[in-house]
Amino acid sequence: MFFGICVLAFDFKSDIVLSNLSFINFIGAVEDKEMSIPKVEYGNWVPKRFIYVSGVLGVFFLALALFFWFFVIGAIVCFVLAVYFVYSHYLFSSKGGNIQNQLWDMVINHLDWSEQGKALDIGCGNGALTVKLAQKFLNAKVTGIDYWGAKWEYSKSTCEANAKAEGVNDRVVFMKANALKLPFEDGYFDAAVSNFCFHEVAEAKDKREVICEALRVLRKGGKFAFQDLFLFKQVYGDINQLVLDIKSWGVAEVEFVETRNASFIPAVLKLPFMVGSIGLIKGEK
Q1: What is the DSSP letter of 198?
Q2: Do 169 and 246 sit in the same domain of this protein?
Q3: What is the domain range of residue 84?
Q4: In terms of Cα–Cα distance, which of 167, 122, 159, 115 is closest to 136?
Q5: Are residues 228 and 187 in the same domain?
Q6: Backbone dihedral angles phi then psi of residue 254, each to the nearest 5 degrees
Q7: Which of 8, 79, 87, 226 is the most exposed place for a label (fewest CB within 10 A)?
Q8: CA distances for 115 relative to 18, 26, 78, 189, 230, angstroms
Q9: SS3 assignment, position 103
Q10: Do the beta carbons of residue 113 and residue 218 sit within 8 Å?
């Protein structure tokens, strides 16, 4: 009797051990599968250095405030900025508010294109918009260009890794180029997009020159969708005049869309230096 109970107990414990081992093996298999899935890294429009610099300056001013009380004001301002940048970074990230992804989607959704031919993404960063173009327009060959400097946390190698991870690397190519002097012939592309790039081109004193250059490499009848700080008057002037100027270059159709009013953009991001002055210019050359 006792021996029988021991055998049953042993079998029961063996079942538990085997069950635990099976569960552990299952978890391990899931983890191995997750690790085998290539990760993408599209970056964030609020660089981490903004957070670090604001925080370090806050500590610096706080230290000075031990000797001169009025430096407390500087410390408070810096700490407030650091908190704002942390929260903005979170809102833009895919693990937070996913605002970046939705803004990229807006550009793609406003590109009224048949998907045949060659498309250009100007100022591609880490390739997010380039990849999205290739994913939506399955018959297109897409080129992404950027100047990739130390100012931003982007690179050509990251673009290529992202395109490979997303399964579109066979139809996508990335090049280093200046948006003011694109290395392409007139009318080379059938479609062109850009997102938050034109105002960053330091060489262009008049940012309209960058728009003109983007349209130069677009063929007659080609489609475009450009999103930038078009409502920032210090950069682009009056938006209605900008649209008229673009039409005067021989562009057939030009339409302005005030994307800053998109419902998914929270009020905290609608400051002029964030996305409070964004808009989208689209049309047909």
Answers
A1: G
A2: yes
A3: 48-92
A4: 115
A5: yes
A6: -140, 130
A7: 8
A8: 54, 43, 47, 12, 26
A9: helix
A10: no
Residues 213 and 166 in one domain: yes
228, 237 in Cβ contact below 8 A? Answer: no
pLDDT value for 3: 39
- The verdict on 82 and 151 lying in the same domain is no
- For residue 198, give both structure tokens: 């034109």
For residues 122 and 142, what is the distance between their CA atoms, to the nearest angstrom?
11
H/E run at residue 227: strand 218-228
Contact 7, 90 (CB under 8 A): no
**Entry pTM:** 0.83
Residue pair 3/11 in contact (Cβ under 8 Å)? The answer is no
In a domain, 54, yes or no: yes
Same domain flag for 184 and 137: yes
Q: Say whether both 137 and 53 belong to one domain.
A: no
Rounded average pLDDT over 239-264: 96
CA distance 143 to 247: 26
Read off the pLDDT of residues 58-114 as tens digits, 9 standing for 90 and up: 999 999 989 999 889 999 999 999 999 999 999 999 899 999 999 999 999 999 998
In this structure, the number of other CB atoms found within 10 A of the CB of residue 36 comes to 7
Q: What is the pLDDT of residues 110-146, one digit of tens each?
A: 999 987 899 999 999 999 999 999 999 999 999 999 9
Question: What is the spatial distance between Cα 46 and Cα 70, in angstroms, rounded to a whole number?
Answer: 29
Placement of tokens 């250095």 in the chain: 49
Rounded CA separation 51/246 (Å) = 38
Using the 3D structure, point to which of 92, 124, 159 is the last residue of a domain.
92
* Residue 133: partners with Cβ closer than 8 Å, 6 or more residues away: 108, 111, 119, 121, 140, 142, 191, 193
Q: Strand pairing of 279-284 and 117-122?
A: unpaired
CA distance 252 to 265: 31
